[in-house]
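Support reply, case 0932

Customer input (verbatim):
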Amino acid sequence: MGQYWQLPHLTRFLNSEVDFAIVSPGMPHVDLWVQELLRHEMPCVLADYLVEYMCKPSFSLEKHVQYNTQAWAARSLAKLVNRSEEILKSPPTSDDQVNDKDDVACLVCGSVDRGEVMLICGNESGTVGCGTGTHIDCCDPPLDKVPKEDWFCAKCQ
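Our regenerated output:
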């Protein structure tokens, strides 16, 4: 019964195009989760693999790869490096540059994402309010939806 509820979560994980599975140092290779990861040729690594990849790029990552999945880890790492290089090579479009400059960061979480649920302090004409942004779920208390009327932060209310 335990395997029945676990596998849908694992299937969603495997279908998400992740590059590595982070496992605990003491996790046995006979664990059901590990066996399923190995069946899908998912490289299993310790968390230090990613830390050293980011912080110590010249260090060997081999010691952090588990269950003899080094070849799969090398393949995934090469794929990750290629994607990174593609991102660095592709110049931002003029739309990206305009949007970055005009986006308002949420005062609570700092994110500029999810603009469709970002509240901007002020009235429609922009003559009243400070113009700061807050996501509806970052409000205290959180709001269920964007209000139809003008919204003002706690400082401007």
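We compared this against your earlier run and they match. Two observations from our side: The helical segments are 2-14, 32-39, 47-55, 70-89, 94-102. The longest strand covers residues 118-120. Please reopen the case if you see a mismatch on your end.
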